[in-house]
Automatic annotation (TrEMBL):
<dbReference type="InterPro" id="IPR058717">
    <property type="entry name" value="Phage_L5_Integrase_N"/>
</dbReference>
<dbReference type="InterPro" id="IPR010998">
    <property type="entry name" value="Integrase_recombinase_N"/>
</dbReference>
<dbReference type="InterPro" id="IPR050090">
    <property type="entry name" value="Tyrosine_recombinase_XerCD"/>
</dbReference>
<feature type="compositionally biased region" description="Polar residues">
    <location>
        <begin position="1"/>
        <end position="12"/>
    </location>
</feature>
<dbReference type="InterPro" id="IPR044068">
    <property type="entry name" value="CB"/>
</dbReference>
<feature type="domain" description="Core-binding (CB)">
    <location>
        <begin position="80"/>
        <end position="163"/>
    </location>
</feature>
<keyword id="KW-0233">DNA recombination</keyword>
<keyword id="KW-0238">DNA-binding</keyword>
<feature type="region of interest" description="Disordered">
    <location>
        <begin position="1"/>
        <end position="21"/>
    </location>
</feature>
<dbReference type="InterPro" id="IPR013762">
    <property type="entry name" value="Integrase-like_cat_sf"/>
</dbReference>
<dbReference type="Pfam" id="PF00589">
    <property type="entry name" value="Phage_integrase"/>
</dbReference>
<dbReference type="InterPro" id="IPR011010">
    <property type="entry name" value="DNA_brk_join_enz"/>
</dbReference>
<comment type="similarity">
    <text>Belongs to the 'phage' integrase family.</text>
</comment>
<feature type="domain" description="Tyr recombinase">
    <location>
        <begin position="184"/>
        <end position="378"/>
    </location>
</feature>
<protein>
    <submittedName>
        <fullName>Tyrosine-type recombinase/integrase</fullName>
    </submittedName>
</protein>
<dbReference type="InterPro" id="IPR002104">
    <property type="entry name" value="Integrase_catalytic"/>
</dbReference>
<dbReference type="Pfam" id="PF26003">
    <property type="entry name" value="Integrase_N_phage"/>
</dbReference>
């Protein structure tokens, strides 16, 4: 058996001395780190190292976890079932800004854990390998590419925490698994298509389409609007977007702020939609400030998605864009046309309620105006002489 030598310097076979915390031993040409945990047990690093710096870095990380009270016994971690770990992860999960997850997001994560990720419920967290995940993803993608991508994204997020906790060395869920291509290309409607869609919608729903297409409001936002949220000034309506209404399965309606802090915003609508909104307020909205712009029927607190989707689907079918233009693509129409009108990126982000340029760009589309935009580029003036005084006529028309 090779002799084990504890190291305290960059030279190997140095006289025995302990590390300030933990120990590093040499076996052959590899270094092995270990430490005594709070439970009195000695724990080895999950891998060997070629440099003392790497071994020390692992020891430093373990000591930091202990000092912060976040250390978990590797023995306990290896026995912890994914279902238990995932439930705890969901209970503790917050947004990037440290706020609790939205009720609908939490419910959707729970649904994914109970369905697509249920295969892993009783498996130890340490049992995840690229091969295990690959086999699962191959099976799930046959059920639906979009749903498989969402489930993979959730699994990747949970296992990223497991990596941070020291349970796994690497995340076995590859990034490409979280992206889906269904083969269906969605796009915002053209101006002509939108005009026909508005015309074909029942009178009570035309204002909803206009609010989405020219105000960039989400369905969850426009269905929560009250009469008091609209103000008419100088022939234009401004919309105070301060809340959304979301129906969570098994819990009912949740009313709260929009999707993000930036979602709370004041939107100014173009004057050409003023007559339609004024008519909607007169014909379909009660006179009290708290009256909803889109009143539910029956005992519901807000209009259900299906009440809008039925006439919306029929209108799209008649225009020939069913399956191509979704309700959410009206928001993309708003973002695209607002940017094309000359808005800066910051103004577009504020208009849509986005905090990042990436999110704002996702709601902008090309519209086939390449020739028109190209013609707006300035032409070169005729050059009469170069800096040296030599006459060099330049005809931009024939160039």
């Amino acid at each position: 058996m090779p002799q084990e030598v504890e190291l305290t310097s960059s030279k190997r076979n140095y006289p025995k001395n302990r590390e300030s915390w933990g120990s590093i031993r040499e076996r052959g040409k590899r270094l092995y780190a270990s430490y005594v945990g709070p439970d009195g047990e000695r724990y080895q690093a999950p891998t060997s190292y070629t440099t003392k710096g790497d071994a020390r870095a692992w020891l430093t990380e373990q000591r930091s976890l202990i000092e912060k009270g976040k250390w978990k016994s590797p023995k306990a971690a290896s026995a912890e079932q994914f279902g238990v770990y995932a439930s705890a992860w969901l209970d503790q999960r917050t947004t990037s800004k440290g706020k609790p997850l939205a009720a609908r997001t939490r419910a959707e994560y729970r649904r994914q854990l109970d369905n697509g990720l249920a295969d892993f419920k009783d498996m130890p967290v340490t049992g995840f390998t690229p091969a295990v995940v690959r086999a699962w993803h191959s099976k799930r993608i046959k059920k639906g590419a979009t749903q498989a991508a969402r489930e993979a994204a959730l699994l990747r997020a949970i296992l990223s925490t497991a990596v941070e906790d020291g349970i796994l060395e690497k995340n076995p869920v590859k990034g490409h698994m979280t992206k889906a291509s269904t083969g269906i290309t969605h796009r915002p409607p053209t101006t002509e298509e939108l005009a026909h869609l508005v015309q074909l919608m029942p009178d009570e729903w035309r204002a909803a389409v206009l609010l989405a297409a020219f105000g960039g409001l989400r369905l969850s936002e426009w269905r929560a609007l009250r009469r008091s949220d609209l103000t008419l000034t100088d022939g234009r309506y401004t919309v105070d977007v301060t809340r959304q209404a979301v129906r969570v399965p098994g819990e009912g309606w949740h009313v709260g702020p929009p999707k993000s802090e930036e979602g709370v915003r004041m939107v100014t609508l173009p004057s050409h939609v003023t007559p339609a909104l004024t008519e909607h307020l007169a014909r379909h909205v009660g006179q009290l400030p708290a009256c909803l712009l889109f009143e539910p029927k029956g005992h519901g607190d807000f209009i259900d998605d299906q009440r809008f989707n039925k006439p919306w689907t029929e209108a799209r079918r008649q225009v020939g864009v069913e399956g191509v233009v979704r309700e959410h693509d009206l928001r993309a129409f708003a973002g695209t046309t607002f940017a094309q009108s000359g808005a800066t990126m910051r103004e577009t982000m504020a208009f849509l309620g986005h905090s990042t340029t990436t999110a704002a760009m996702a709601y902008q589309a090309t519209t086939g105006r390449e020739a028109e935009l190209a013609e707006r580029m300035p032409a070169l003036p005729a050059v009469t002489s170069d800096p040296l005084g030599t006459v060099t006529p330049f005809n931009t028309a024939s160039a």
